[in-house]
Amino acid sequence: MTTADLPYVLAVVGAGPRGVGVLERLGANAAELLGGRRLVVHLVDPFPAGAGRVWRYEQSPLLRMNSMPEDVTVFTDDTVEIDGPIRPGPSLIEWARLVREGALDAEVDESLRAELEALQSDHFPTRRLQSAYLAWFHREVRAGLPPEIEVVEHRTRAVRLEDGDPQSLWLEDRAEPLAVDAVLFTVGHLDAEPDERETALADFAARHDLAYYPAGYTADVDYSAIGPGETVLVRGFGLAFVDLMLLLTEGRGGRFEEQACGGLKYHPSGAEPVVHVGSRRGVPYHSKIGYRLRGKPLRLPKFFDSYAIGKLCAVPGRIDFRRDVWPLISKEIAWAYYSELFTAHPERVRMDFAVFADAFADAAPGELDALVARAVPAPDDRLDLGRLDRPMAGAEFGTAEEYGKELREYIEADLSRRADPEYSADLGAFMALLSVMGQLPALVQTGRLDAASQLSDLDGWFLGFFSYFASGPPPRRLEELLALQEAGLVSFLGAEMRVSADEERKAFVASGASFPGETEARTLVEARLPEPSVSRASDVLLRQLRDSGALGEEAVLDPVTGDRLLAGRIHTRVSDGRMLDGEGRPHPRRFALGPHTSARSAGAFTRPRTNALPFRQNDVVAREILRLVT
């Protein structure tokens, strides 16, 4: 029997949306590249295939998506620039309509039937309903595979991988390893052991009988030890906080009531703690936008495209993100914002759009403000990215109550603006940010970014700004936050939140820059996901590969000191997803995809008709694997 007579065996470790997305691409490209040889795909995941961990059905029904169903798809469309064939399919809202009409055979739990029947394009579905969509997608992908591709599913963890021909992959519940030719890791956010600072806080808590919750995926953390009425400090005002807020309030039996005059009123159950929340910005993530673009179609990217990146890299010397890259990105964002403002709301500008567009394209960064001042009379219509990024910077208040009033007005204004199509220019800025995210891997791949700038400015500040501006919660979550503040169950600690472990008081003590005073508590919660860190990875398989030198942690070279600064991410070759070992050498038959790899894709679902980066990455890797088969 020749090698060609034997099946080629691929293991996909991680069978959530990304893993099944690559499986779909394997099937789509098989006719061109498989050459008639059999391919056996082992899907390995302890959670249900399709949904995976984050979108599994078995979680609180209170937890919702942060995207509207019209903005979620798992299918390619004709905007996606790939070498493989396009295989279109329904978005989440289209799927729901087809299921309601009886046009699709989808298994939807009866507990989701009412939500499915009522779902509209601008709703925010529960994660459990998204689970049903992903489970259906998984079944459709499997049913549509050519006969040469066989899929074997393992509801367990992969715990060890050893090189060889074939490679040996051990699973948690099997005595003998799987013999596999290639391995693909489709990893989401990496779970990590506590870092040095978190370890010190945990040790402090243990010494003084306190409670400390390090960074983690909120839905999987047990907060039952937090008692009714207990004062709790929460550091982090993003999506993890929103989940925590719901689990500690409505999740403990309280309820929200719609008010006739608008807004919500919260009726406590008596089991809730009292939460004091703060962060560097001191404000929550922006509400999701509830309207569509109204102007002429945006053509993105325009100022931050492959040509601009190539021109940037043609100049000798290291590239600094803030100095060299951010001006291009901010111009891209401003272009989309003002394009929508001028073409959708011409009555609010004083210049013909063609004239403005020509002047805008030629303007140097320092000249844009003067141009905008001439063309856009209302300050509220002008894009101020600095103010957007740090809305409370420099603002000082006499008391926590004064700050709470100011923040309440800020949140109410944000809710109003993001629900009013008169401000559709904000959606233009949002679309530009999505476009920028699609270009960043090409920039990182050049290796020209200054090491410290890549870590602090790109991975730290910019990706944080993207999440804050573009990946916020549904509007109702902020309405619930206001209701909980009104009920006295949430208060705000301000910007530049600081927490100290006070040995004398034997307590955690929080303060901030927005107002004087301190808040003392026996419980501290880090409301955020762990930062990417291969060195602190808690996954058994990743640790084994790291310790053996088979898995590298992305590092960037500081040209001044010669030091290699760790970026925390799984080191991959951005062009084809191949994993790199500790010496930076690509493995010919190991691949990795996900937000915590060197490719830096957004950890969110793709929007239809946006030439989404994850689809492009999936297709590239699937085709690379199929070329190995033959």
From TrEMBL:
PANTHER family in UniProt: BLR0577 PROTEIN (PTHR40254)
In terms of domain of life, where is this protein from?
Bacteria
- Write out the transmembrane intervals: none
The FAD-dependent urate hydroxylase HpyO/Asp monooxygenase CreE-like FAD/NAD(P)-binding domain is annotated at 11-189
Where are the stretches annotated Disordered? Answer: 577-604
Can you say what this protein is called? Answer: FAD-dependent urate hydroxylase HpyO/Asp monooxygenase CreE-like FAD/NAD(P)-binding domain-containing protein
Biased composition of type Basic and acidic residues is found at 577-586
Annotated source species: Amycolatopsis japonica
Q: Which InterPro entries match?
A: HpyO/CreE_NAD-binding, L-asp_N-monooxygenase_NS-form
Q: What is the lineage of its organism?
A: Bacteria, Bacillati, Actinomycetota, Actinomycetes, Pseudonocardiales
